[in-house]
Fold these 3 entries.
Entry 1:
Amino acid sequence: AAYTNVELAESFPHDADLINHLAVKKIAEMCEKKSVCLIHISTDYVFDGQLGKPYNENAICNPINIYGSSKRNGEIAIENVSPRAFIIRTSWLYSSHGKNFISKIIQKSKNSSSIKVVSDQIGSPTYARDLAKAVLEIINFNESYNKKDGVEFFNYSNNGFCSWYDLASEVFRILRVNCKIESIKTNQLNSELERPMNSALDTKKISERLGIIVPSWK
């Protein structure tokens, strides 16, 4: 559970902080008290997107919007409480359930002959089912590893990276959607919200440490 509406978080920072930071702190405190291992899902938005290459787990955090800041504060709260915990940073999450980028563009294609999609924001798409499998692997890893108290970070996204335009194009190609995709730049959007321009994640650690074969985003 998280406050994931990035646009609304700018208008309701208190709500984002309550859910992404303070609630996480409470959960961490209960886990520490009960000696329960915590698995927390975080985000690529803890980074500013200026590194120029995929971010690994040791990269410096520098969130540039309210959502990213609230999620980073949640991570810090867990580290300060320091229960036995794993923090998984993921990105561009989608599934067949709920609202996400893929479901939105499919819906738009039904009502329009063309859509506009940003081509200069780069990231790593993540299929929720693949992320869920990785969480199960971490649970098995924790039980066999007998990890002591302390926080360990893992990145998990599907392998590789693309732009939102690339992702939309691949979706429409697979589904044979007859809808034109127009490439636009971030500065053409009607939004003042800052987003990381390249927040692709390096998943080498989770692959090597847990033996997980990470599927390509395609």
Entry 2:
Amino acid sequence: MFEHLTSFCDYLNLEKRYSPNTIISYKNDISQLLQYAEVEYEINELASINAQIVRSWIVTLMESEQTAKTINRKLSSLRSFFNYLKRKKIVSRNPLLKIIAPKIPKRLPAFIRKESVDKLFDTIGEDLDYPTFRNRMIVELLYSTGMRRAELI
């Protein structure tokens, strides 16, 4: 099983020209699944790995508190690996076609408290030279309207 991983890494290096760190990440991700299949299911052939085994591995990763982003990266590595194996006719199907990647939660935007903004405007003052006055107006416009920087520009 692992001999095909070596040829896949050579393919990534020589044909795709991926960076050494990317190749190491791919190799580690794929090795994790292959070891899992070997230990948990006693599978020694790549063609025997199916979607159920991959789903089981994903559940194991989630239980070990891996983030959705990390799991998605691992799945991407595996998709590439199995597509490579399919092109080389080592496997007849890609077991990851039926796998739905976990959703990545959206981050909430950071915000500034009103007290902090009021304090900022109080420190600037009123009687200013032109560049300072212009900068204050830009900050006030951005803060009061919520427009984006690109819209202001």
Entry 3:
Amino acid sequence: RTASDVTASAKGERGSLNVGVAAMFAGNPMADVLIRLRETVPDLAINVTEGFFEDLITDLKTAHVEALISNFPPGVADEGLIFEPLITVHSHFVVSAKHPLANKNDVSMADLQEHHLALVGQAHVSVLVADLFAAENLTLLKPAIETNSLVLLRSLVQSNGYVSLLPEHLLEQDVKDGRIVPLAMEGTPFKRSSGLILRGLETQRPAVKHFVDATRAVFADWPEVSA
């Protein structure tokens, strides 16, 4: 039995694995990845940390986690890390169905400036939104609310008081049911590659491969897969 345990550990089939997941993927597909891992390596214990890109990258570099499922902010690169795009995420400015902008065609950044913004408190999101305002010779006012909670942002939009920028896969049912409306804005949806982020091959344990294989398989079933 001891020999069997050692062999299983060496193959990454036993022991533990620490991974990170961006907040936008913390429901699905992460749940599907964990279910697939349970089916293929049932004795491997998985510890999952949810967070946003900047914090997760720090955790990966300091070996607090060994792999990430995350979006890739524009221009991000790191020679010590491997970025494997698997899907393209679409994001929209969204409001509740009762919001004054919900039925307006050709919404501009000037229109948004007249309403309360609630945004994710991440640097790359602030830069994106500031650039959109600057393109119309406007200045981005400080958002009414900044948070690291996508659940809170979704609730604030539904409350009819706020405009937010959120990925469409998190809002699919809300949009179908008519509770949330993507704004009709030129240049949207915003598209961003997402997938796996790993440390260099020389530092990867066999257990990481099981996680990678499960993630690839789950993302392959998503509607839009990167070429």
